[in-house]
Design a protein that fits this description.
With about 350 residues, the protein is α+β, with helices and mostly antiparallel strands. The protein folds into 2 domains: about 1-40; about 50-325, Penicillin V Acylase, Chain A. Helix content is about 35%, strand content about 30%. The chain contains 6 helices and 17 strands. Strands 3, 4, 5, 6, 7, 10, 11, 12 and 17 form a 9-stranded antiparallel beta sheet that branches. The chain has a 6-stranded antiparallel beta sheet with strand order 13-1-2-14-15-16. It is globular and about 105 Å long.
Length: about 350
C-alpha cells in the first residue's frame, strides 16, 4: 500500500475517532447541561415575591373541560407529599380523620407530615386554601352551629352547590378556638362550578362564585375583602394579572390542556414553590410537579388509587423521594449510553490500528 493511501486511511481513522469523541462528550454533558438550563430558568422566574404562606389556586373551564390546580408556596425547607386514604397521621401523633378515603397533600418533616393543604374526593370535589390576615368571624344568629373539627366536613360534599347550601345553613367554626379565619378556601367540582369562601370586612362568611366566567383565580388577596392580604397585596395582584392574561388566551383558542394549565402555574411559581398540582375532576387524573421543575410530572389517578386501598389503608408518597429516584434512573440511562459509545470508540481505535499494521 502506498504511503499516500496509508496517510489517507490514518486521517479517516482520526476523523471517525473525533466524531465519536464529540458525540460521547455531548451525551456526557447532556444531563449536566439540562440541569443548568433548568436552574437558570428557575432563577429567571424569581421576580415574584414569596413568603411563608403564599399560594395560587385556579379553576378553568373551556367547553366540557375542567381543570383545577395550584402552587403551594412557602416554608421551602419542608418537603411535599401526596397521600390517598381516609386519614392522615401527623409527625406529632395527631390524626386527621376525613370520614372517607380522599387524596390530600401537604408538607412534611423527615418524621412525617406537619400540615394539610389540598383535598380531592371521589366525587371530583377539590379544595385548597389561600392564607390571609386573620379576620374575626361574625356569628350569624340565624344559622346553626357546626363544629368544623379540622374543616373536614366540606370535603365530604359532592358538589359546589352542596358546599354553598352548607355555609348558608351553618356557622362553621371550632368552639375550642377564637373563631378567626386566616384563610379563604377555593373549591371546585366536576361540573365546572367554583367558589371561594372567606370573610368580608365585617367578618361575615362571603361566597364568591365563578358563575359565567371561564375561570376563577385566588391568591393571598381576600376576594371578599381586597384590603386583606397575606404578604404584599401587589404580589397577589401581579400573579393574578399574569394568570389572567394566559388564561384568556387559553379560553380564546377554545382548548384547555394540562400542558397549557401547567404553563400558567409555572409562570406564577416562585423560589418558595414546594410543589404544584393539576386535577381533572372528570377523569380523576392528578398531575404533580416537584418544586419548580415543570419538565417532570408524576401522574396519579384518584379513582384507581382509592380503589386499590384496603379499609383503613393509606398510600403515602414522598415527592422528594420520587423526584430523586427519577433523576437517578435518568442519570443511570445517560451513563449506559455514554458507556456504549466509549466502548465503541475503543473498539474502533483497536480495529483501525490493526488495519494500519496489516497494511
Amino acid at each position: 500500500m502506498s504511503k499516500r493511501k496509508k496517510f489517507t486511511e490514518l486521517v479517516n481513522m482520526k476523523k471517525k475517532i473525533a466524531y465519536l469523541v464529540i458525540i460521547s462528550l455531548m451525551f456526557l454533558f447532556s444531563f449536566k447541561i439540562e440541569n443548568t438550563i433548568f436552574s437558570q430558568d428557575k432563577n429567571s422566574k424569581n421576580m415574584l415575591n414569596s413568603h411563608q404562606g403564599s399560594c395560587s389556586i385556579i379553576t378553568c373551564t373551556v367547553g366540557d373541560e375542567v381543570l383545577y390546580g395550584y402552587n403551594y408556596d412557602g416554608r421551602e425547607e419542608l418537603e411535599p407529599f401526596i397521600q390517598f386514604g381516609d386519614h392522615l397521621d401527623f409527625h406529632d401523633d395527631d390524626i386527621a380523620d376525613f370520614g372517607k378515603p380522599i387524596c390530600c397533600t401537604g408538607r412534611m418533616y423527615e418524621t412525617g407530615p406537619t400540615d394539610l393543604y389540598a383535598r380531592l374526593n371521589a366525587d371530583g370535589l377539590a379544595l385548597a386554601y389561600n392564607s390571609l390576615e386573620g379576620i374575626p368571624m361574625y356569628i350569624d344568629p340565624l344559622k346553626e352551629y357546626y363544629n368544623c373539627g379540622g374543616r373536614f366536613r366540606i370535603i365530604n360534599c359532592s358538589s359546589v352547590q352542596e358546599v354553598i347550601d352548607f355555609y348558608n345553613q351553618y356557622n362553621y367554626y371550632d368552639l375550642s378556638t377564637n373563631p378567626t379565619w386566616y384563610w379563604q378556601s377555593h373549591i371546585a367540582d366536576a361540573y365546572g362550578d367554583a367558589i371561594t369562601v372567606g370573610l368580608n370586612e365585617f367578618g361575615k362568611v362571603t361566597i364568591t362564585e365563578k358563575k359565567e366566567s371561564p375561570f376563577l383565580i385566588s391568591m393571598n388577596l381576600n376576594l371578599a375583602y381586597p384590603d386583606c392580604c397575606d404578604g404584599p397585596c401587589n404580589d397577589s395582584i401581579l400573579r393574578t394579572n399574569i394568570a389572567t392574561e394566559m388564561l384568556e388566551t387559553i379560553v380564546e383558542k377554545q382548548s384547555l390542556t394540562v400542558n397549557d394549565f401547567r404553563d400558567v402555574l409555572e409562570a406564577i411559581s416562585c423560589e418558595a414553590t414546594t410543589h404544584s398540582l393539576i386535577f381533572n375532576p372528570k377523569t380523576f387524573d392528578i398531575y404533580v410537579y416537584y418544586r419548580q421543575d415543570f419538565s417532570k410530572v408524576f401522574k396519579f389517578n384518584l379513582e384507581e388509587e382509592l380503589n386499590a386501598l384496603a379499609p383503613g389503608e393509606v398510600n403515602f408518597y414522598d415527592l422528594k423521594e420520587m423526584y430523586d429516584n427519577s433523576n437517578d434512573i435518568k442519570f443511570f440511562g445517560s451513563s449506559v449510553i455514554i458507556s456504549v459509545f466509549c466502548f465503541g470508540l475503543v473498539v474502533l481505535i483497536i480495529k483501525s490500528k490493526k488495519d494500519v499494521i496489516k497494511s
